[in-house]
């Protein structure tokens, strides 16, 4: 999965062991030293109430309770040793009450954290059900995908994509459902289910397009029967590709009002893949016209970059859109590695996040597919790896194995701790996660 961990969590662990108790203990030591080194009129022992208070925000309930008791014991020892005639009751009551409240606050924090973790697991399961992981070389294509929802807690939104092999070739779909919330996730799941069945059984791409239109209209009618009037005008933009099995240099395109794919040739040339645009899915009431099926010549070994509007509409502080075509053209001309799906997906991801300063205003999907040439090793012979695998070398030009990635990044990226692993494996505790904001892409690479 492509994710980022909260940066501050790395300071709470050392070689896999929790060291969050160090800060409250350090505060307690400073308070004791100040108490012993200052005159009688300066009472620094009251600082010990900060020990359980800070621990409640960083440590477990057991550690917080232990430090609260140790703070009481330390105060008693310091008072007996240095100032036995001073009244201890004001500070003693403060430490007792502060310790009890700190333990209670820690219990609440840990309980909420456990609930959030359960919700995260449910969200991940939902995402994997909608955006399934792809094995390497699915349908004979080298592929790489990155999904970044604008809502980092939801982990899934209205963007959808899929690869469906069929007896007549491999079909690819990417799209974006209009709107926000769980309703668009349900609509995206319905469209993907229809594509996976119709894309396999139907020979004509035009028939598959008609099935998708009917499915969206049925979904809208179903939602209206439930009283969801906000779904009355629901629609989805999408683009569907087909790689015919018997024509290696041809791609069929059906565009439902979506951003056209970018074609990156093996020589580094870049440009939009031409084709007529049709109406978005769900708008057959406006005009009952199916979008045309366009056949385009695509050199073998070319990479097709498909994105949603989260990429092209990403803004910087000045309100400028991310210049996708210009950046991709410069990158493809500079490096052969960036002409491959994995390298290009990473490049666009880094560029969007740098351009928008990590503040994604919409769900963002980056989907790259490539049909290998006849003289290349099959992509399915490579193991599936995450695009954020720290052992994966960006400059390895021999790496042609596709890996499906569906991570999540949002503003400030909260709630993505310990998830930078391959799908299906969860390892609690601190995880080493790669970041990208420390290295800005330059013309020299």
In short:
With 445 residues, the chain is of the alpha+beta class. The protein has helices spanning 22-37, 50-58, 61-82, 89-130, 182-201, 205-225, 309-312, 324-334, 341-356, and strands spanning 13-14, 17-18, 142-148, 159-166, 169-177, 236-244, 250-256, 262-264, 270-272, 294-297, 303-307, 364-370, 403-404.
Keywords:
alpha+beta; 5-stranded antiparallel β-sheet; 9 helices; 6-stranded mixed β-sheet; 445 residues
List the helices and strands and how they pair.
Layout: E1 13-14, E2 17-18, H1 22-37, H2 50-58, H3 61-82, H4 89-130, E3 142-148, E4 159-166, E5 169-177, H5 182-201, H6 205-225, E6 236-244, E7 250-256, E8 262-264, E9 270-272, E10 294-297, E11 303-307, H7 309-312, H8 324-334, H9 341-356, E12 364-370, E13 403-404
Parallel strand pairs: 3-13
Antiparallel strand pairs: 1-2, 3-12, 4-5, 5-6, 6-7, 7-10, 8-9, 8-11, 11-12
